TrEMBL record:
Lineage: Bacteria, Pseudomonadati, Bacteroidota, Flavobacteriia, Flavobacteriales
InterPro entries, A to Z: CHP02453, UCP028451
Name of protein: DUF2461 domain-containing protein
Length: 227
């Protein structure tokens, strides 16, 4: 890994001002400043990508654009007020992805897991939890894991999905539509010289979860390989 890299206070301050002046005229007046900050931010995302690739196998990094798609939104503000990027593991063997979100006022966070599983993947995961929930619980309830990542979060159904017993002992897992873990950061932490190092360590700690879910999604219900 390269030398410790920090996001700058200038980036956070720019995003604060953008939130207060979220219009094209203001943005165009400050576009030169934005471009410089964008280059610096993307460099940090690339540093994290390289660090993750030391202990995982990533396919690509996607840096999300600052421009919002407002066509179908009631909120017509043209710009996002954060920087973010997703780090995709190499399919088909490795599933799940990592996400880094930089936003001022202590709203930065990282996330990992499965944001929008396909219909087939969702059913496969639910069936696995129906058959055996002990292995996944051992991973996500591990003391060291929980100290970093806390509880699984994400959208879930209010009741059991069709075809599943609402009284099943794993119904809390089966009802889920997303399988995510998140960790929040303060502005002070984001601008710390060791921020990327810390984020990388947190992502490394989640590997048992990703490896388990990958094993589920690359085998059938009988445990036979699909790839």
């Amino acid at each position: 890994m390269t030398a410790p890299t920090a996001f700058s206070n200038n980036l956070l301050e720019f995003l604060k001002l953008l939130k207060e002046n979220n219009d094209r005229d203001w943005f165009n007046e400050h576009k030169k400043e934005f471009k410089k900050l964008e280059v610096d931010a993307k460099r940090n995302f690339n540093v994290l990508f390289e660090a993750l690739n030391v202990h995982d196998d990533l396919d690509r990094l996607k840096n999300f654009r600052i421009y919002r798609d407002v066509r179908f939104s009631k909120n017509k503000a043209p710009y996002k007020t954060h920087f973010s990027g997703s780090f995709y593991r190499r399919k088909p063997a490795l599933r799940g992805s990592y996400y880094l979100h930089i936003q001022p006022n202590n709203k930065s966070f990282i996330a990992v897991g499965f944001w929008d599983p396909s219909k087939e993947d969702l059913m496969r995961i639910r069936k696995e939890f129906e058959i055996d929930d002990e292995e996944i619980r051992a991973i996500i309830n591990d003391e060291n894991f929980r100290a970093i990542w806390g509880d699984m979060v994400g959208e879930e159904l209010k009741t059991a999905p069709r075809g599943f017993d609402k009284e099943h002992k794993a119904i809390d897992l089966i009802r889920k539509k997303q399988f995510l873990f998140t960790k929040n950061y303060t502005d002070k932490e984001v601008v710390s010289p060791n921020f990327i190092v810390e984020v990388n360590a947190s992502f490394k700690a989640v590997r048992p979860y990703l490896d388990y879910m990958s094993s589920v999604l690359t085998t059938n219900i009988n445990g036979e390989p699909l790839i």
